[in-house]
Amino acid sequence: AIEFSWGETLRKQKDFSTAEPHYQRVIDRWPDSSWADDALQVLCEIAFEAGNSQRVEQIAVQFGDKFPDSPLRDRVRQTLGRTFLRQQRYPEALAQFRELTAATASDAVSGSEAPAKDQPRGDDTPRRMNYYYLALAHLGLGQGEQSLAALDRVHPAGSEKELEAGVQVARASALFGVQQFKEAAEQLRAYLLAHPEGPDSAECLARLAVSLAETGDLAEAEKAWEQLRRQHAAHALFLPTTDHLAQRAHARSEWDKAKKWFTVLAENKQSPPYATKGLAGLGKTQLREGDPQDATRTFDELLKRAPGSTEAAEAALLRARTLASQKQHAAALAAYQ
Description:
Layout: H1 2-12, H2 16-29, H3 36-49, H4 53-66, H5 73-86, H6 90-110, H7 125-140, H8 144-151, H9 161-177, H10 181-194, H11 201-214, H12 218-232, H13 238-251, H14 255-267, H15 272-288, H16 292-305, H17 310-325, H18 329-336
């Protein structure tokens, strides 16, 4: 017990490398003591926090073999499932959390659920967390409806702000995935209002902009996009979001917005493919606006920058047609050739 206590003291100080040997000594010297399963479960958590997925899997197997009846076993299995989520091994994560949620549901019905050693009786946190992780596994597999059903079983306590935020993001992602864009926008706005600089704010702003565009509210989508640009212009979702909005604006004949977003794409230096898409969209928008000269210059720029791209073939044809419409027949013939 003293050895374990030393380890706990060091772990609370986040001195994991010094704490770990104390837990290991408990297991090596007193393998049959009541503290051995505690020590192994803590080592599993330390491995998870260190990002050592292989070690987590090894400990989970060892724990199941040595302590199959320990009340801490489900904690180890939860840590293993979280490791699978981190590695995007969603089928394996799904299997873990299906079993864990099935077990807690069965125990709740039978009244046989026993709290872990340091878990207060009546504490429902593990069950809530397991359903939350189950929802994330479904989400990773693109199963939005199943994810929403799992999230309906999660009711964060008032003090569980981190879980509450995670549920908001997960629910918004699931709604987005099943194309319930109005409902997704409501969840995204709620999250951003409570966590304007939260860890998921960039993804939420991007999805909010797309969700609003899908509901036809390009004005509000533009506001969300402007915030995304101010705060997260370097984020991986910025250019895909800009492209989505540009395409939606073009489809709705909102030429000013389409030009704005296509121009941002065309002028970006980070992603040539998106720059090419921006030039193609900008040229077509200029044509629809009745500005053939600007469209011709834009298509010329596209053909110069990306002559072998998919967009180049269409741009060359549109450029030739534009020249012909301006009665520049020789240039148009040359362009067709």
